[in-house]
Amino acid sequence: MADGVAREGARSGAVNDVQRETRRNPTFLHRLEYAAVMTVRAGLRPLPMSAVLAAGTALGRLFHAVDRSHRRLALVNLEAAFPVRPVAEREAIAREMFAHFGRLLMVLLKFSTMTADEMLARVEFEGHERVLAAHAQGRGALLFTGHFGYWEINALVHALTLHPMAVMARPLDNPLLHDLLEHVRAQTGNSVIYRRGALRRVLRTLASNQAVALLIDQHIHTDAVYVDFFNRPAATTAALAAIALRTGAPVIPVFALPLPGGRFRMVYEHAVAPPKTDDPDAIRNFTQRCTDVLEMYVRRYPELWLWMHRRWRDVEPATAVKGMFPAAASGDEDGE
Length: 336
Fold this sequence. Notes:
Layout (H helix, E strand, L loop, with lengths): L1 H21 L5 H17 L4 H18 L1 H14 L5 H25 L4 H5 L2 E4 L2 H8 L4 E5 L5 H11 L3 E4 L6 H12 L4 E3 L4 H10 L3 E5 L8 E6 L2 E6 L1 H9 L3 E9 L3 E6 L13 H19 L36
Parallel strand pairs: 1-9, 2-5, 2-8, 3-4, 3-5
Antiparallel strand pairs: 6-7, 8-9
Helix pairs in contact: 3-5, 4-5, 11-12
């Protein structure tokens, strides 16, 4: 009961914080977007997963055809990441990436209409004993991933099989869609942590031996360290490494992969080893190790990552940390 009260309190606090940060009256466009999403959600409810995936693929293909700016950005990023791959192959990755994110949206809306048993029937877990082992240490767990695969689905089913967790997120611009997404994220027992007072709530969550999940692949302007991502410097959140070093919470990479037949595999990798305690650049080096794991998965499944994001924006600093993968010029850009 106490755990339930704590989760509800965290969820309530998160809602209040985001309301203070971003709450405003929805515009006509916001209402129109919300009505469209709710109409699609209602239409997906009775459909089999095969039809849901087909609808997502069609949606993604449509955006690939009409969204010239994001298509161009994806191709620029892919060329820099995989310079020796043929142009046709990079174009195919971009096309499939758009289709994947269409499927992600449709699957998330479909899952939001499903019962807990229906969700669990669609997923399987690999390495989840590593999360249980982390909680056995009593310091909570830090779970990280990127805009990769079906990360939102992982958050939903994680709470049904393991412990409910707190998800670090940024509020959406549309307040109606924000409330919908918050409801979806919380429907299996998770809470959401937003920017205001985030550190205090993260530390409190870990102290109560719960997990905190966050994404590490967005460009940020503050509290960032530069690490090597696809052989280019990328401004990356220092929060994951800083909190891990402060609390001793294990850091576990998590990836949600699609399987045939409309199923999904939740993969929990080995915890990332922290640097030595006397490392003068521990935060940067720890962040690099985590980024290397994410890059490994993106190289394996490039169509599942958000190439249309402006991930690389700055000049490499003099103290850049090199990643674990060789530069593409070596002829081994896949790193496998």
